[in-house]
Design brief:
This is TetR family transcriptional regulator. By secondary structure, this protein is an all-alpha fold. It contains 13 helices and no strands.
């Protein structure tokens, strides 16, 4: 574990125990055995630490979920059961994060955290919905948002018992148990019924990822413009560097699907040329490709 991760872990425990606003940077420093001033070499503020906590852990979770989704040896049900098990295990491993999330500490921090929490909820709902449609097929398509919401509600309560009440449950039994409950829920759905949650009602949840991708693309384009301006102030833009930056800009402004292998090649070239703001650009691109 590197120093930045140590700070994140220490802050997460304190936020869960004391609450975000009651925790000071001094206490975070003491928790991980650092001088207070040293923390500012890694994080500019307590708000930045809070944002990093959520990004760090949910990036890890969604990457693991994505890896399972690409396993062609598993059926749709096997994939989802395995993904749910990973989600449960990750939350159990990081109880402090669940405490912070469920204790509603997160939404009280700032707008960036509120937006991030909403994005995570939307990604979870869309993941559940798509998995449920893949498992149960056409018969559930009208009710997939309701089914996803009910599954999320059940899982959240069990995680609450584990993280907040410290109850010892058999983690390995939870995912198959919940999927069997979903079998019963789907079987009870009638064509004569209408769903409570429609695509229109949940439009903001369904479109949030697309909107977030657009925002991240714009951040990358803005960073490229800043790089060009800085180079121009420092004596001009070399032709090959300029072409590389322009190609990168085109990829994020014009392509329907950004080609990761091209982006990585261009980034590597710009790193070798020691172009200013390269690290900022790489961070923005890493966030774009994060699951």
């Amino acid at each position: 574990m590197n120093r930045k991760e140590e700070i994140i872990q220490a802050a997460m425990k304190l936020f869960a125990q004391k609450g975000y606003h009651a925790t000071s940077m001094q206490e975070i420093a003491e928790q991980c055995g650092m001088a207070k001033g040293s923390i500012y070499n890694y994080f500019k503020s307590k708000e930045e630490i809070a944002v990093s906590i959520f990004r760090y852990h949910y990036d890890v979770l969604f990457q693991k979920i994505s890896d399972i989704a690409h396993d062609e040896t598993l059926s749709a049900r096997e994939k989802f059961e395995k993904q749910l098990s990973i989600q449960i295990e990750e939350f159990y491993r990081h109880k402090e994060l669940v405490q912070m999330h469920m204790g509603e500490q997160a939404v009280k921090v700032n707008d960036e955290i509120r937006q991030l929490v909403f994005l995570i909820r939307a990604k979870m709902l869309n993941w559940y919905r798509q998995a449920i449609e893949e498992i149960y097929g056409e018969k559930v398509s009208n009710f997939s948002l309701d089914c996803a919401t009910m599954l999320n509600g059940m899982l959240k309560e069990y995680l609450f018992y584990i993280a907040i009440d410290r109850k010892e449950l058999h983690l390995s039994k939870m995912a198959p148990f919940l999927l069997r409950r979903m079998d019963a829920i789907v079987a009870s759905m009638s064509e004569r019924e209408e769903p409570l949650l429609t695509m229109e009602v949940m439009h903001d949840y369904l479109c949030v990822e697309q909107a977030n991708k657009h925002r991240k693309r714009q951040q990358i384009i803005d960073c490229i413009h800043q790089m060009i301006e800085m180079l121009q102030r420092n004596g001009g833009v070399e032709e090959d560097v300029g072409r590389s930056l322009e190609a990168l800009k085109q990829e994020f402004s014009e392509a329907d699907e950004v080609r990761k292998f091209i982006v990585e090649a261009l980034l590597l070239y710009l790193e070798r040329r020691q172009v200013p703001l390269w690290e900022e650009l790489k961070t923005a691109i890493d966030h774009y490709f994060a699951p």
